[in-house]
Amino acid sequence: MAILFIDDDAELLEWIDREFSGFNIPDDLEIDPIAGLQRIKSKKYSLIVLDQHMPDVQRSDVLEQIRTKYSSMELPVLMFTADGADETAIDCLKKGANDFVPKPVNSEVLKVRIQNLINVNKAYQFALIQKEKETLLNIVATYNHEINNSLMLAYAYSGEAKLNKEKTVAALDRIKATLKKLKETVKEETGEPSKEKYAGFISVYTKKAG
Hints:
Number of domains: 2
Helix content: 55-70%
CATH superfamily of the largest domain: Response regulator
Number of strands: 5
Mean pLDDT: 77
Low-confidence stretches: 193-210
Structural class: alpha/beta
Largest sheet: 5 strands, parallel
CATH topology of the largest domain: Rossmann fold
Order of helices and strands: EHEHEHEHEHHH
CATH architecture of the largest domain: 3-Layer(aba) Sandwich
Shape: rod-shaped
Radius of gyration: 27 Å
Strand content: 5-15%
CATH class of the largest domain: Alpha Beta
Strand order of the largest sheet: 2-1-3-4-5
Number of helices: 7
């Protein structure tokens, strides 16, 4: 969890650095908006605090580039507005900002609004984790019956008076094939390769079959 402050005002960034030294949330300070966009591509942030007016780039360019990739819950953006006019704040919100703080910046107001948006991001990340867990549980449940049936066959064949090695190995092979399908399905659903949770389990029963 980290915050990225993007502002062309070096004195303001120094003030932010001092004010947030005990905030228990790591922060990065960037004076160049283009470099700030590069940071966002290379590092995961919980919040972006973005200045409204910066040289060589319009505020909408930076904000819109962020919003082309991240939703307002996935990566909240807090804007510093210079003139305090309602029209300016409304414009920022319409372009995808979650909230705004007028300049000159009030330290306590800034901290409260930052914490609120950090909480928004935490809730979003928690919901993603819960959804992934639910997806994985559904996937496992889908294959659970097939794995259990194959296990029962493997136990039955290996427990016969005369070990039926061929049938036992065939049953274990079906388990391996099912687990392979499960791994591929998990990878498709989550975008991440699944862990080899069953490798030791399969190894034990393969040795028994041997």
